[in-house]
Amino acid sequence: DNAYSLTNTCSSIVNLRLNVQGYYDADAHAMRAVMANQGVGSSATDVDDVTVELRDSITNALVVSTTARLKTDGTATATFVTAPSGSFYIAVKHRNAIQTWSATAQTVGATPLTYDFTTAANKAYGDNMIQLESGVYGFYSGDLNQDEAVDIFDFPLLFNDNDNFSSGYLSTDLNGDGAVDIFDFPLLLNNNDNFIYSSHP
């Protein structure tokens, strides 16, 4: 009835757990408060926003996407207000990480889904994650131009911001400490040397 429609909303919820390689502090066993480091707010638990997409399990076509706030403990809640229901791959995009998909299609619907990328490389399609510490995995950092590969085309962005002593909310700050400097280069260099690229159907 009308009262119900005014007080209730339907949505599908996907509770994620994931890490971004460059933002992860193995000593703290958590990610850094990157947004605060980069001058965006003062939260001690906000890391960054990620785009979460649901992809058709047969055609791989984009069905719906939303933005979720990633926390230092790796949690992010993706709320899809259109209430999609069915079998979907979960694709996660971040401004300086390799696009990463769930290993298999997952059932999304009225019951909230929980998917944890962090526990094993094979939680990502193609085992496409890096081990950050024993039993903890994360998305590869360094895809600055978001072409689904860490390669030579990402270097100019990092070199330019480093040469200009840039700081703030920048994708080139690969380790999330608030400054673009020499400490960001190893992430890009290593992943370039290892031919890291996105893996998905």
Explain what this protein looks like in three dimensions:
By secondary structure, the protein is of the alpha+beta class. It is built from 4 helices and 12 strands, in the order αβββαβββββββββαα. The chain has helices at 2-7, 34-37, 155-163, 185-193; strands at 12-17, 24-25, 30-31, 46-56, 62-71, 75-80, 86-93, 100-101, 106-108, 113-116, 130-133, 136-138. The strands form 4 sheets. Strands 4, 5, 7, 8 and 9 form a 5-stranded antiparallel beta sheet that branches. A hairpin with a 6-residue loop joins β7 and β8 (100-101).
Q: Can you write the helix and strand succession as a string? A: HEEEHEEEEEEEEEHH
Q: Which structural class is indicated by helix and strand composition?
A: alpha+beta
How much helical structure, as a percent, in the residues?
10-25%
Mean pLDDT across the residues is 95
Number of helices: 4
Principal-axis shape: globular
Q: Which spans have pLDDT < 50 for at least 5 consecutive residues?
A: 1-7
> What amount of the residues lies in strands?
25-35%
Give the total of beta strands.
12
Largest sheet: 5 strands, antiparallel
Distance between the termini: 43 Å
- CA radius of gyration is 17 Å
